[in-house]
Write a structure and sequence with these properties.
By secondary structure, this protein is α+β, with helices and mostly antiparallel strands. It has two helices and six strands. The strands form two sheets. Strands 2-1-4-5 form a four-stranded mixed beta sheet, with helices on both faces. Strands 3-6 form a two-stranded antiparallel sheet.
Length: 76
């Protein structure tokens, strides 16, 4: 996967949608995972966040995962 940013989201979460739109607007390459549909992605997200189950989560190599968007998120 290289240095791609991973975006963990759920359908229907407005904060996930806002994070996606921001990344797209800025032209950032990312791979999106819907953690309600992809159990392996859910497990990777929970591991990366130390057990936090709030989306969106943005994971970028070499940086702390960013949990939530603008201080808000949806609990999975």
């Amino acid at each position: 996967m290289g240095n791609a940013i991973e975006l963990y989201t759920t359908a229907g979460c407005p904060h996930s949608e806002a994070a996606r739109e921001d990344l797209e607007w800025r032209g950032v390459e990312f791979v999106e995972y819907d953690v309600e549909k992809d159990r392996e992605a859910y497990e990777r997200m929970v591991e990366a966040t130390g057990g936090n189950r709030t989306v969106p989560v943005i994971v970028e190599e070499g940086k702390e995962p960013r949990i939530g968007w603008m201080g808000q998120g949806c609990f999975v």
